[in-house]
Specification:
Length: about 170
């Protein structure tokens, strides 16, 4: 663990953050490749696996799940982010720190546009994403991202909501 920081303003207790995680990229790619073999991809024939390491060192995985309607297809990163939330409440210690996405042959794939946005809320702009040329920060892959800041600034006031109908027996 990193040495504790001195007390902050107002005498609040110092926060202790975990050391920046060591990312074993070959192991992360191997985990992504393994889960890619369990993908459900009968339509595209492209099995995809995603493996993410959280800031506290856990490795989570997801694979793509296609659907005959195509529009309902889930990317591997969707499964990964779902696994992240299913594993417990998220915070800055448990968000994703690194992600590897690979095809069934184990070679890196870049996340699609939707998944870049999805990963942004699971790991932030400094999330490391594996590429064929080495890890890059997500913010380089998703510049000028839409975030909760824009949402809060542009949200219109909501009109009062009608009372829900009373249940009758
Ligand atoms: Zn995607």
């Amino acid at each position: 663990m990193r040495p504790e920081r001195s007390a902050g303003p107002g005498g609040r207790p110092p926060r202790t953050l975990p050391d920046p995680p060591h990312i074993d990229w070959p192991a992360l790619r191997a985990a992504a490749t393994a889960v890619a073999s369990r993908a459900y991809a009968p339509y595209s024939g492209l099995r995809v696996g995603a493996a993410g390491q959280t800031s506290d060192g856990r490795v989570l995985v997801g694979c793509n799940v296609e659907n005959a309607s195509f529009g309902l297809t889930l990317c591997a990163e969707c499964g990964l982010v779902s696994a992240l939330h299913a594993a417990g409440p998220g915070n800055e210690r448990t968000g994703l720190a690194a992600v590897a996405v690979v095809a069934g042959d184990g070679e890196p794939l870049l996340p699609c546009g939707r998944c870049r946005q999805l990963l942004l809320e699971a790991g932030g702009g400094r999330l490391l994403v594996d590429t064929a040329d080495g890890p890059v920060e997500l913010k380089a892959l998703l510049p000028a991202a839409f975030t909760t800041t824009e949402l809060a600034q542009r949200r219109e006031p909501q009109p009062p909501q009608p009372e829900p109908p009373q249940e009758t027996r």
